[in-house]
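re the bet — no i am not wrong, look at it urself. input seq straight from the record:
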Amino acid sequence: MNQKIFVLSLLLVVLVAGCTSSGGTQSTGKEILKITDVDSFPKNTVHPGETLILRATVKNVADVPATFNVGEDGKDVLFDYCSSLYNLEGYGILTGQNEDEPKITLSPHQEAMFQWTFTAPTEEQIGADMGLSHECTFKTQIKYESRAKTTSYVYFADQNEVLQRAYTSKELSLKGDSIATKGPVVANLIPSMNQPIPVKDETSEWTFYIQLQNTGDGIVNVTSLTIEGAVCDFEDQKDKFKIYGQKSSRIACTTKTPKEVVILTPKKYTIDVIYEYTTRKDLKIKTEAFKY
């Protein structure tokens, strides 16, 4: 009987000690829509009064569909240019989409090519008689909504279980896995202390961080952030909801620990992030007079 108890106790120690290995976070992010090309004809330089054709190609580079605003005459795509100098003469979409629709949805790997036709400024407008020229930046952008929904598992332990660490010769640093959904934002839950998190009583609290990483080159604007399984107040951290390319934000949350804790049974937390993603691409066009 004593031998059986010893073997059972040994197995429990091995089980608990074996759970000390760190399970890494497995999250990936990828941009969905990109402006792959902005080009002009003539290229880069145009003469006063000439016709200028500008083209921009938007492509879905992911494996999920996405929708973006186009606006009248594509004004949401070509959102800024020297409109007081360049006269817009025509607009169209060369890839079959309806140019009258205010929004376009692109399927995976589908693209849309936009075209605008302008008349370049006159010699008087650019001051050609004084040997001057003019450079204009044509600014294109797309905005689309996406979502990152991440599930994480966190381990807790009551006071008695915390004391049992002494029998394992190792710390119980149990970690759950996080798997992010599609899109250029990766959301991870990072506990502020080693797991399992100690739980003293029903008033116990613990703090964790939500790491929001922008894996693309555009701008993230978080419009909604909720945590299933926790009550968090982010009102005083709204300045961290805007993330520029290749950067990240860390947002803190202090919430109640679970009321009931079972050793080696993790609690599930789901981070749900809804955000608007903006990506841009610019092209500079120079207007200069003929040189004789």
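see?? The two ends are 108 Å apart (CA to CA). told u. also Residues 2-18 form the longest helix (17 residues). so pay up
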